[in-house]
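[audit] Reproducing an earlier prediction to check determinism. Same input, same settings, fresh worker. If the tokens differ from the archived copy the diff job will pick it up downstream; this log only records the rerun itself.
[audit] input (282 residues):
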Amino acid sequence: MDTPGHRRLIDARRASDGSGVRLQRVLAREGMGALDPLLLLDDFAIADRHDTPPGFPEHPHRGFETLTLMLDGAMAHADHLGNRDLVETGEVAWMRAGRGVIHAEQPVLRNGRAHGLQLWLNLPARDKLSDPAYRRIPAAQIPRLAPTPGCRVRVIAGDLELAGTQTHGPLTEAACAPLLLDLALDPGGEFDLPATPGWRRLLYVHQGRVAIADDGIRRHQLAELDDTEGLRLTAGTEGAGALLIAARPLAEPLAHYGPFVMNTQAEIDQAIADYEAGRLTD
């Protein structure tokens, strides 16, 4: 639907993945590709009612990148490349599946909780079969800004110019060169987002509520924002936490099956055959 400041709202849907991880999943009704270059977004939260927290046992990927932002708790990462890592609160893990990666992720509770966001970002056709890679970005390396009272911004990736000063995010490897902002707003806090013509701009609210003009975006909703004008985001009475994702669409054909995202069905068939034959990561 069209409303001032944004083009449509998408409600996250309850889903389950891995070994019983319950999450909120954002996927456009038209399927992957409709929010190009974002493929999907998962919002997972695990509480201490579990004796053994559910997780994501070893599984394959090909043809895209993942980005995991830990809002609370931690995530243990292991992959076939030999990476063994622990992503703590406030940290970001980036992984390029490329031609193939096999990895496992296990939430680790801190103070009885683990909460995070994971994005799937598409790779352009030229990079679909590139070398897989992994990197953790410590929280201390992510620039923090306070452009207005009650507004805190962490620049994860891309360049953000505020008041004549440009800040560069530490994640430079993502192929779609996104702007990724982790926003925290106190009750009534405001953030002015400049126009980005030609970019797809998406705002996911994981806590509280955000208003643009007179229209609200509540928790577990993703809004596709108008890219042609500057927008003012205002938090509701409970404050808000949100992730801004902006990038130029790849505008390439897309084929998807389970953990594989390619450009054609033939490439999907090849990915399945390679995995079944044990050569996905060759």
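[audit] rerun output stored. Observation attached for the diff report: Helices lie at 265-276.
[audit] end
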